[in-house]
Amino acid sequence: MSKRKVKDSHLPVGECITEVQSILRERLCCNLHPDKPEEIEAQHKHLLELLKRTVIHGESNSVLIVAPRGAGKTMLLKCVLRDLLQEKEAEKSLLQVHLNGLLQTDDRIALKEITRQLHLENVVGDKVFGSFAENLAFLLEALKKGDRSSSRPVLFILDEFDLFAHHKNQTLLYNLFDVAQSAQAPIAVVGLTCRLDVLELLEKRVKSRFSHRQIHLLSTLTFCQYVQRVQTQLSLPENFPDKKFGQEWNKSITTLCKDASVEEVLRRHFNTSKDFRSMHALLMLCLSRVSVSKPVLKPADVLEASKLRFADAKGNMLHGLSILELCLIIAMKHLNDVYEDEPFNLQMVHNEFKKFLQRKSNSMYNFEQPVIMKAFEHLQQLELIRPVDSSTAKIQKEYQLMRLMLNHSQIMEALQKYPQCPTDVKQWAKSAFA
Amino acid sequence: MTSLLEQPGYDEEKLQMVAEQLLCREDQAGLLLSLMGQPQQYCYPSIFIYGHQASGKSHVMHVMLKELELPHAIISCVECVSSSLLFELVLFSFFGSEASSLLPRSPSLSDFVRIYRQQCLQAPATQTRYIVMEKAELLRDADANLLPALLRLQELVEDNVSVILLSEISWDKFRPNTGCFEPLLLHFPDYSKGDLHQILSQDSHPKYSDDFYSSYINILLGVFYTVCRDLRELRHLVRHTHTHTGRQRHTHSQHSEDFTQHTHTHTEDFTLLKETDTHKLWRNIEPHLKKAMQTVYLREVSSVQWEQMQQMEEKEAGALRGLSAHTHVELPYYSKFLLVAAYLASYNPARTDRRFFLKHHGKIKKTNFLKKNEKTSNHLLGPKPFPLDRLLAIFYSVVDSRVAPTASIFSQISSLVTLQLLTQVSHDDQLDAPKYKCAVSLDFICAISRTVNFEIVKYLYDFL
Questions:
Q1: So what's the ipTM on this one?
Q2: pTM
Q3: CATH code at A41-216
């Protein structure tokens, strides 16, 4: 028994790391919800009060939570629901219907889903019977029959609310808001959306039935708070099996966050975006570098991770092109310089390339037209060039007008990084007028 | 390789096996594996891997998932023309055939998620489940909600599932306009010349020594590397030119036999010479490789034909007519003239018609005729549309005999359109003043006009 105890407090490093990875991965990937919402207490309180009124007093409500992506809408809602369900009355009587605009793409599907989640009579197993009209009538009937005092409150949660506004006639939204407004069964409609102009999407009759209550989650995060958040995200909880390892880990995280280079990286991330998702992605990349042989996070890991995050995708793709394809891109760049904003076709590019070859009198790049066409098509496949109009069948390939999807600096930067780039090609790219 | 082998939670022998199969991709595979974490741990909801064609994206995923025996579904978006096929495949590979039969006839995403959740209650994931989508760029053309939903599938089904997207195109071109869950971006860089050499020399021919083979690869890369870095393409070329090399080596030995007779040296250690003398090998091989670039690389000559050509000693490579040589079309006499007239109408400016086609056109000022500002030739800009009247006018001028405008002439014009030698430009009106463009190349029209003894180059404004 005593042996077991000793083992518990002092796990081998491998198991500790496994444990660390499990805990932190779960936190970063599945967005586990914190016990206490930070910085959004006011919104949390507001929403909780609102839902409580529906549950306890039978008041019907509608509310929209509007915030940019990754700002914690779902987190807020989940926290509120968790707190709400701690009330005895809520736990007993509240019915929840979760809908997502991505999944329920039209009203018919949404209606079936509602019927299923409410376990109404026309559901056998999980099959729903009846046509759309029958379903709707049935559902409305069921909602209408109820009244404030006796029937159970229903909470409708519409994730990706803006997509519901694209349904035909907005029937579902109209009916939900209509029930919420009139004295029928008590329901609360909570919409989550990232569009600020979501009210403009609603029809007039739908809009007039909506309560116009909006909760905005606009981030007021300062840099200090951001660093603090990084630190809390990476720290291990109190109940970590190996106390000593946990303490050491937490200490190393604290020192890590104070490191100047890490701070610089974090500031850069903070300046690009404040949302939690991108922070989690960064931390995930850091975490993946922790292993048994390297059981602590070093500033170098954070630097590497941020380098991965900030890698320039187009530059990366340009790096892998062949010299012929690179030459074609340079020719296109020259064409763009000379004839500003004019589209080009393969013939013009080839002509420009030929001019370069004549000047250099270098037979090394003397390729046949079909070989050049193949390179050109490869560039099109990579979407580095794009046809001006998409009527592909009507016109010969070599006369199809194209536009270059790269800008000047991207090309020059790619040339700098290109491995073993021939000098004459580099010079050709630099000379503004060929 | 060390980073790959370190990952705990996996069988070490299996990791070793994986590492052996992933040549020159150790770093990427190691990073990927460390992101995936141990099997029972959560993985990031979606990972987006981009890189050039044949940079080992699918290969790495296949090998890792197969060898490490992780539950996975590999889906090619080319095959899944409708999303119901995709749902079926995913459910089938995770939960077996009963689950996929539960799907209704034309399932929506909602049905898929519902059934997935149901099945998940019965068989929750003990290991991370992976869905690998190959050619993910095609997802953009599918339903607008499919890609955002796949990216946050972990959240939607509340299971330990991770979606891995493989594509050639960078993530910037995928983002839907209202945004979505951002995946982790990973780049698979292109193989360097050394990497390519290493990979290609792996499958060396047992008949020849490794050095010989690797020097051959060197020569091949020397010719093709400037044009093509696609491993698959290069491997295809290696496969179809190396039979030639083998043969070349034999003939080469004959050559060098002559050579040695002349110089009276090296007669004894002749076998040694033929394997190590890369310079001579290069001299013999290089023209053939250059020819291969114009034939096999462009698929002008199919690889079977190429092999046959190698068998026949006399026939030079490329002597066989390729695909593009077959573009020669037999046309009726007047159709040829119609096509010639159409070409002239497409590539000449209308104001020069008087000068070219009128017999007694009087005096035309040369300065007027050759305008200075038209520097770019029409052969650079492509064909211009012309009305039917102009086509017929040029046609009558070009044909020496008197031709009646019969129905057959007009039907020949429309049959040229169906042959796609001409294209009709505007579809406003079928009968009244249709406009056409000529869609043939200069070589083609030269060949056609030669058969009717018409010198087209004399009549082309660009070549004056």
A1: 0.91
A2: 0.89
A3: 3.40.50.300
